[in-house]
Amino acid sequence: MRPGVQARAINLELTMTESKITLAQIKSESRKFVGFVISEMKPKGKLLTPFNVISIPIILLAVVLLFIRFTQGLGSITNLSQDYPWGLWIGFDVITGVAFAGGAYVITFLVYILKMEKYHSIVRVTVLNGLLAYVFYAGALLLDLGRPWNVINPVIGNSFGVSSVLFLVAWHFMLYMIAEFLEFSPAIAEWLGWRKVRKWLTRLTIGAVIFGITLSMLHQSGLGALYMMAKGKIHPLWYSEFIPILFFVSSIFAGLSMVIFEGSISHKVFHHRLSAEHRYSHNDIVLGLARICAGAMFVYLFLKILVFVHGGHLSHLSGPMGLWYLVEVIGFVLVPCILFTQAVRQQSVALVKTAAIMTLVGIIMNRLNISVIAFKWDAAVRYIPTWMEIEVTMAVIVSEIWVFRWIVNRMPVLSSPPSWAKDESAQELDGQVEAALYNQHPVVKES
Amino acid sequence: MISDGSQNSDDCREITEIHDNEQSSGMKRRSFLKIVGATGAATLPAGQIFAQEEGSEHDPVGVLIDTTRCMGCRTCELTCAESHGFPEPDMDFSVFEEERTTSETQWVVVNEYKTDVGEVYVKKQCMHCVQPACASACLTRAMYKTEEGPVVWRSRKCMGCRFCMVSCPFDVPKFEYHSANPKIQKCNLCWDRQQEGQIPACVENCPGEALMFGRRSELIEEGNSRIYQNPGNYYKQIYGEHAAGGTSVLYLSAVPFDQIGFRKDVGTTPFPEYSKGFLYSVPIILTLVPPFLLAMNNAARRSSESDQPGADND
User: Fold this and answer.
1) Angle at the Cα of B130 from the Cα atoms of B158 and B252, rounded to 5 degrees
2) How far apart are CA B36 and CA B30, in angstroms?
3) Alpha-carbon radius of gyration of chain B
4) Spatial distance between the Cα atoms of B67 and B65, rounded to a whole number of angstroms
5) Neighboring chain B residues of A146 at a CB cutoff of 8 Å
6) What does DSSP assign to residue A20?
7) Distance of CA A169 to the CA centre of its chain
8) Where are the domains of chain B?
9) Cα–Cα distance for residue pair B142/B300, rounded to 1 Å
10) What mean pLDDT is predicted for residues A335-358?
11) Is B273 an 8 Å CB contact of chain A?
């Protein structure tokens, strides 16, 4: 970034040219900026909400538990063992959490690549959710690392294990977080009133989106590819060379179901922040997403059947693991797939929500099956997470919700962007088409 | 040194391949090149994967374990603990009552198996695979296959992710779950002793000559000649010659290997092969998907442009 641009960034009044900025002005502007940020740090609204009353003790307890974990080793609060090196923190926090964050790349694909303006109003909240999910759930990986002080090694330190799938996943997590941050950054610029910076950041969006979708394809499937070398350790009903592709396809409907589920909650909780456009289009959006979910799940089921038949797995269906497999695939993929289809046909938003919740449960089952339940399914001593592992996982989730709430209550995520930003996007976004699309709404309303 | 040369040439080949891809995809827009430039760094992996295959061509050192000669005295366990500073193992013979695995304080264990030919004692430790799953799984190259063959763990690189444990087909690496500064523990074929010109402690101290140290190809020759000379004494297979793509620790036995605690489903494919398909697809996706998305974006823009009059008519 050139120093000129930086100075412009600080400039809140947005009137002066580069050459006229004096030191005193920079000082006063930066003081204003710091004051603004500090005032925004303060909580808005009541402190004693039911959510706060539940979440604060959870977070405090987790801090204590993590202190024990970092001073006495992973074994002090987890049930991880030599047979089960990866437990709930990887299987749920990271592998399931990242699948749930898949909504961001699907929605950005629909809006920025396919130009489906219908979904424009949910782009920001979805990208924010994706970004926070990566920061917190991929960040939970740090809690699980035995030697976290070496976490920088695959990035700097000339220790590039380039033949490792995990190396790829780690880099992609990092790059994708940057891409998602860039996609979300115009909202931050609008919050701070940085007009020029916003203009500059908006130009990066399409690049960040293309890069982000590519990275997502690779690391969503990469999380599945982590288990390729665990051949023989994962029950044959779940292990196949298609795990990466299955992970990728399922991340589409996992992410979208999360968008539907999360959207229906935010609509109640953040009702006061919702823009009119947001409220108006919500049902239409939900039904559109349901249709995509149904399609992706159909493809997924088809692949599942292909893998099942190709692998000759019929004999494995007898016994408890076979039954469990059927519960997952029929009960929590096929059934919600049908429900989504029915919901679209009947235009029933309530049915979409039911299907979305079932899909999410199915994804949790699938990811935990591969990482924990069907992993060494025949071991003498099975891994069952301790209450402390579950507690820390809950703390990760509620901390994410805290940050999400903080941002949504301050930045234009669910609410409309400030009027200057709207005008600007109309005038200056990539070409006149974009402008025409933005102006389209008022035109339609007037006529 | 030979392998170094080949690694470089492989890198070059890979770079030219990627270059070709860029040109053949035909999109010459600046934004496309920008994206490729950004993704370029992430296409690095494949060049090194080729290189790892080459590494397997020279002859690693290893150990031939003749279970027909092992008496179950467990001297190897004792000397291993001594030379690596672990607590002395429980030397009582009651330990044979159950099948043990190596642990974070025991790099080697001997198990007793009741078989058709009576009790058989089997020493267990890291197999030092020719193409180790753990080393290819390691994202910091902490788990590392040395030029000479032993697979060693380097504390300064390891971040404790335990992916090596997930990947190892023999479940060898062990993690110190009750330490704030945990290490991965596994046999390193006495790499430190080898560098001083000595042979592994267990081999040196084995009283029954059940263990033999040498180059892998020589050990296979020796194993085969023992089988041919005493066909009645041996099951006609050297375990490790092909298992998991070949290991540097090799076993001879009087009975089929599944009777003495060896997994039957390991197969003969080197374990890094299982994730290779995915890793090879990475540079392809990284170079082909962005231009494809850009093209879709362009097409969508054009179609929404042509929709425009229609929208106005509404």
Assistant:
1) 120
2) 10
3) 26
4) 6
5) 158-162, 175-176, 182
6) G
7) 15
8) 30-56+273-288, 61-260
9) 47
10) 94
11) no
Q: Closest partner residue to B159 among A148, A163, A443, by Cβ?
A: A148
Can you tell me which residue has the tokens 């291993």?
A: B80
- Which residues, 6+ apart, have CB-to-CB distance to B71 below 8 Å? B121, B207, B208, B210
Asked if A218 has any chain B CB less than 8 Å from its own CB, the reply is: yes
Lookup: tokens for B145:
């296959």
The C-alpha of A66 sits at a distance from chain B's nearest C-alpha, in angstroms, of 12
Question: Measured between CB atoms, does A164 come within 8 Å of chain B?
Answer: yes
ipTM of the complex: 0.84
Instruction: Report d(CA A401, CA A409) in Å as an integer.
Output: 12
A222 touches chain B (CB under 8 A): yes
Tokens representing B247?
């290991």
Please tell me which residue of chain A has the smallest CA distance to B142.
Answer: A159
Domains of chain A, each with CATH number or no CATH: 56-412 (1.20.1630.10)
Interchain proximity B159–A76, CB inside 8 Å: no
Candidate from B35, B137, B267 with C-beta closest to A229: B137
CB contact under 8 A, B285 and A214: yes
**For B68-82, how does the pLDDT look when each residue is reduced to its tens digit (9 = 90+)?**
999 999 999 999 999
Token pair of A55, please? 């979440």
Contact A206/A184 with Cβ under 8 angstroms? no
Best of B141, B262, B312, B313 to mutate (most A CBs within 10 Å, chain A): B141
Residue A147 to residue B156, Cβ atoms within 8 A: no
3-state secondary structure chain B: CHHHHHHHHHHHHHHHHHHHHHHHCCCCCHHHHHHHHHHHHHHCHHHHHHHHHHHCCCCCEEEEEECCCCCCCCHHHHHHHHHHCCCCCCCCHHHHHCCCCCECCECCEEEEEEECCEEEEEEECCCCECCCHHHHHCCCCCEEECCCCCEEECCCCCCCCCHHHHHCCCCCCEECCCCCCCCEECCCCCHHHHHCCCCCHHHHHCCCCCEEEEEHHHHHHHHHHHHHHCCCCCCCCCECCCHHHCECEEEECCCCHHHHCCCCCCCCCCCHHHHHHHHHHHHHHHHHHHHHHHHHHHHHHHHHHHHHHHHHHC
* Bridge-based pairing state of the strands B118-124 and B143-145: unpaired
Which token pair is A251?
A: 């991340």
**Cross-chain Cβ contact A70/B180 below 8 Å:** yes
pLDDT tens digits for range A116-159: 888 988 899 999 999 999 999 877 888 999 999 998 888 886 78
SS3 A352: helix
- Which 87-106 residues of chain B touch chain A by CB within 8 A? 101, 103-104
Judge contact between B117 and B235, C-beta under 8 A.
no
Query: Which residues 127-186 in chain B show a CB within 8 A of chain A?
Result: 133, 136-142, 155-163, 165-167, 169, 171, 174-182
Q: Residue B57: which pLDDT band, with cuts at 50, 70 and 90?
A: low
Tokens describing residue B37:
């430039």
pTM: 0.83
In terms of C-beta density within 10 A (0-12 exposed, 13-18 middle, 19 or more buried), how is residue A58 classed? middle
Does the domain at B61-260 match CATH 3.90.580.10? Answer given as: no
